[in-house]
Amino acid sequence: MAFGFCFGVALLLSLWSRAESAGLPDGALRMECHDRYFTMAVDLSFTGEEPHFEAVDETGAYAITQQYAAQCGYSISVLPLPGDVELRASYFSCQTKNKDDIFTFNFNLNVTHEGKESTYPFNKTCSPSLPWSPREVTCETNYMEVSVKSEVTCPSGTRKDDWSSLKPAHSSTTSDWQVRFQVDDEQFPPMNISDARKQGYVFLLTDGRLVFRAPYGQPHSFCTEVNGVPVEAIHATIFSRQSWVVLMFDLVAACSMDEGLYHESGYMMWETPETLFPNLDGKQVNVGLNGELVAQPVAEDKGFIVGRQNNTIQIGIPNYAEGVYRKSVVNVDLYEFYVFHLYLEQILVDEDHVETRIRFLRTLVTPLLPRPIFAENQTVLVENMFTVYLGDVPEDVQVNAGHLNRQEITVPLTNTSVIMTKVVHPNNTHGYKLKVPFEDPFVMQQFSKEDAVLHYMLDINFTLTVLPENDVYYHMVSVVASVTDVSPPVFDAVCTESGISFKLDHRPFDYLWEITIGLDLLTSELAAQHGYMMSNDSNSLLLEVPLFSHGYEYKNISLKGFFGTFEILVRDLATAEVQSSTIKTCPFPTTELILCSTDGTMTVVVDLSLAIPSGGVAARTNLRDKYCGPTETDRKWALFSLSLNSCGSTVKLNRENVTYQNEIFYSKKVHSPSKVPSENATERVTMQCTYPLAGLIRLFSVYRFDSDAAGIGSVIHTKRPAAGLQSPTIQPTSALTTMLATTRQATLPISYKPAIHPPARHVKVSKFRHLVNALKKGVLQSLQTKVNAARI
């Protein structure tokens, strides 16, 4: 008859699981049922560095130590990459309950927080989704396990208690069951089950299966090589003599102990003999990672290598496969290693087509591999900035600081023109693109005048942090951008109706020079002072210089027109030497004007239409000195050019200025006395030049006129009084006033009529000399101070 406690056929049940985990933070615990084992992963941030697990059944709680785990079908591993501690339990582990292939797990998690120990109970119920094979071998990381299907007819008179020695390891019941170990052809003396348990072996009878488990490295296991692959095996035979019947089970486990070899192509290679068990042929290979199995064709589509050579199965796992863990490490330089949680199933059949399944769970780790990070100079000169790409940065490494030419920066960057952007790639790497404008203060610059080359230089020291350890690694790169044919800036200039317009398109290296008007640096303040209209933005500088404003030089003045020239100087920023200039000369039509040059020449173009009688011509006009006539005339206009101290000019002197004045008269006859009022003339024309007294350096030292600056000229039109009336004050009806200029004016020839100057002119000059003598004492001292300063 069949015993009720004997194994029956395992029912195929759908996966059903239940978990209870009171008191843990959300997401701190993950529990999963797999085909042949159960896993529980707890977040290390919650457990701390030393978590403790206990396996629980109706007899008590048993601490899962390293030794106890290997004996009872548990494995504990710390997974620093996901940051978990993982407990893996065989469906035939010691404290697991099994009823009709429904397995119930109960555990305690003991953690210490702030010196206080807390216990968290967990339970999970699982059922395998695949039927059991007649023989299944599991090669775990710390033990070997073999289970066989048991369908025996129990002899008459055999009691249930005769199997009690095959109960869980903590049971104290004994019987006459014995075990004999065999190494190759050598057989060890038999021992009873209880003695075998004391040596670390476990024999377990559960519903439908007989289980044998042994840690690696046991005295009765043996290591060998099969086709060059290291293998550890153990062969145990358990038997019991019941009356005239002997019950015997042959239990063999053999596991490949290959630790894997990482190939430079990026594959972790692992091998196992194709025929670990004699008289069995290979039928199928399934492979995967982290407890997930897929068929060989599917695995190969994902990049796995599944090959056979010399009766050896070769598995190649690409480092980019989903489920592979990688970790960066700083050891002076940057390194990385990969962790592969290999799961392999090999299905074998004998001549009767009875299946044997071998499952391997292996954690394969590469050695430390150099992890180079590269920097690429992607600078484009026309963009006027450095562009440096830091690439192939692992996903657990980030840039959070750095130095630019030894000046520290932090990421994210704020309040700076420097830009750093992160670039993510699909191969779980990323990079950083750093942009630094050439004109940024971080950038060093060196200009070679001999070669006309401007060098921009930037030393970059990236500070990279490996997470979560926050270990620091530095990557340095130096970049240089050279701009050739560097030349001083050149303005575009065009003539306008009202003056000259200058435009300069900015270049990134224009700062090497400064722009001046004469000796004065061109600034917005200088432009406002002299009446220039200037606009300056990031693209260009626009300068509008009105006619007669400071800086003009005038040539070829006639009644038809004249030429105005304006010059902009470009000087070396360091030495102030003139490197280039932009000179623009434009023709302008002549209107009424007066120019007072620095060498003491007064040039006047004046409208005399109201200052001469009807029918008169401008050619018959003269100055106070009747022999000083115009150099050019038409009917109503006249051009005069004279030295300030000639032609009867009068001089007015005060504490700050000196003014030279003259007047235009009309002569009825060529030789008539001067200063004859014009009949029918309604207007009197006076012209004058005023100079700052402080600028007349040589006024009292040499007999020639020399001024620091041009004078301010005025042409004053006043209405003549009616005949017989005397007006103490004559108000001007109109006046033209010129602006200051610094350029020396060209002297036009003065037209002298053949006559000796009248005595009146000498009287006025004599009076001027007496006035000068009177003021010399008060003014000369201050002038001499300026002269001395100028000589120094």
Describe this structure in words.
- The protein is mainly β.
- Helix content is 8%, strand content 50%.
- The chain contains six helices and 60 strands.
- Strands 11, 12, 16, 17, 23, 24, 27, 28, 29 and 30 form a ten-stranded mixed beta sheet that branches. Strands 1, 4, 5, 8, 9 and 10 form a six-stranded antiparallel beta sheet that branches. Strands 13, 14, 15, 18, 19 and 20 form a six-stranded antiparallel beta sheet that branches.
- β40 (492-495) and β41 (499-505) form a beta hairpin.
- It is rod-shaped, with a radius of gyration of 54 Å.
- Mean pLDDT is 82; it is low at 1-21, 153-163, 169-174, 670-674, 723-731 and 739-792.
- This is ZP domain-containing protein.
- It holds the Pfam family ZP-N.
- Keywords: Signal.
- Residues 595-792 form the ZP domain.
- Residues 1-21 form the signal peptide.
